[in-house]
Specification:
- The structure holds 2 protein chains of 2 kinds.
- Chain A is an all-alpha fold.
- Chain A is 83% helix and 0% strand.
- Chain A has a single domain, classed as Fumarate reductase/succinate dehydrogenase, transmembrane subunit (3 helical TM bundles of succinate and fumarate reductases, Up-down Bundle).
- The radius of gyration of chain A is 19 Å and the shape is globular.
- By secondary structure, chain B is an alpha+beta fold.
- Chain B folds into 2 domains: 109 residues, Beta-grasp domain (Ubiquitin-like (UB roll)), CATH 3.10.20; 135 residues, Fumarate Reductase Iron-sulfur Protein, Chain B, domain 2 (Orthogonal Bundle), CATH 1.10.1060.
- Chain B has 9 helices and 7 strands; from the N terminus they run αββαβββββααααααα.
- In chain B, the strands form 2 sheets. Chain B has a 5-stranded mixed beta sheet with strand order 2-1-5-3-4. Chain B has a two-stranded antiparallel ribbon with strand order 6-7.
- In chain B, a hairpin with a 2-residue loop joins strand 3 and strand 4.
- The longest helix of chain B has 21 residues.
- Classes of the chains: A mainly alpha, B alpha+beta.
Amino acid sequence: MKGNSYFSRKLHSLLGIIPLGGFIVVHGLTNYQAFERGPEGFSNGVHFINSLPVIPLLEIFGIYLPLLFHGIYGLYVAYQSNTNTGRFKYGRNWAFTAQRVTGVLTFVFVFWHVYQTRIQVYLGHITHEELGSTMNLIASNPTYFVLYVIGVLAAVFHFSNGLWAFLISWGITIGPKAQRISSYICMGIFVIVSALFILSLVAFRGDEFKEAASAVLTLTNIG
Amino acid sequence: MAETTVATKSVKFIITRQDTPDSKPYTEEFEVPYRANMNVISGLMEIQRNPKKADGASTAPVCWDSNCLEEVCGACSMVINGKPRQACSALIDKLEQPIRLEPMSTFPVVRDLVINRERMFGALKRVKAWIPIDGTYDLGPGPRMAETKRQWAYELSKCMTCGVCLEACPNVNDRNSFIGPAAISQVRLFNAHPTGEMNKEERLDALMTDGGIEGCGNSQNCVRACPKGIPLTTSIAAINKDTTKHLFKKWLGM
């Protein structure tokens, strides 16, 4: 049973939804606070997450390790696949190829994004309170903004389409009708979660995030 | 004089050829006289009778594999105008010309259009796609199968191991050990059988090893390509469910 790809592939599929899929939805909802409630809402969201117990454990076992396994094993899965969308121009076959392309894009994007945000907090260059202003800087740069939109769309597509495939791989949606209905639901999830992320990216461009940043800076300077 | 009254129609073929399993493939063009109701096999037979290329130069006759000529044996599968299908049921009247014939190169090419589908038969052995009833005495009749179940199981039994689903699958290739859709559907067929069901765990176990059912990436090309209309993706999802259940049962020691 050693080196059995059945278990690694199954674990890959599971981790993509639990915890990673859950994480992306929570992340989208937290960011959306920036759009709905402005800098204060966003910083409340950040504060809420940081008030959770055993944060380092949650981060390591709930995000970093699953992300690394899912990402690295996923690159191997993508390597093992051919693309034959030229010969078989079916929607599902396009989604199959897109799932692999967006997986690789997401892999690159997540590393870059984590470097720009979470790693900067680890390094002590910024604080959790300054994440809003960091995002303001990133989203105000037109190139970064476009790259972030592409990265976010890739990640959310990969999650939504992955959810559809997860339901099949675990034997939940079996017949063609169940799979068609779940594809509509997953497409809906793609639209909604993408909207959460893109609207928050747009919101981060607002000057109030810059001002909030300087206000925080003033506070810390006074303190 | 008859020649002036009958329009001489012809059929054009562009065929991918390969002389030995290891040599480089190349293409040759052929033009054969048209007859009513021709299929790709009768076109190939015409080339065999008069092995001349479109430019008139002689060449070795094109090799192909065929047997039943009624789309039930699966031997004459090849890629016709880009789509894997059976040559016997590919009617010339319904094909765009020139007709491009290629071997299904997912499989080892033996010569020209002849491929070796041995991996499919190996897969059937691996998943034990049979019902073990041999014994030292008469076991008597087995349990009966419900008619409602028989009806869908019959659809699965139409599989002729033709290899079209493997050719269509983006995950069946040199870098991937995926067993392919056909064998998974056969597991569903034999696990549905009231006597075959008695050994269902063995078949599920076989699909839960390296290169088993996890190789499916849900491109769902197989179900579109299958010439017999077998619900392959339903079979895969159903076996996904059974292997998942089997996995947890084994973990829990049930």
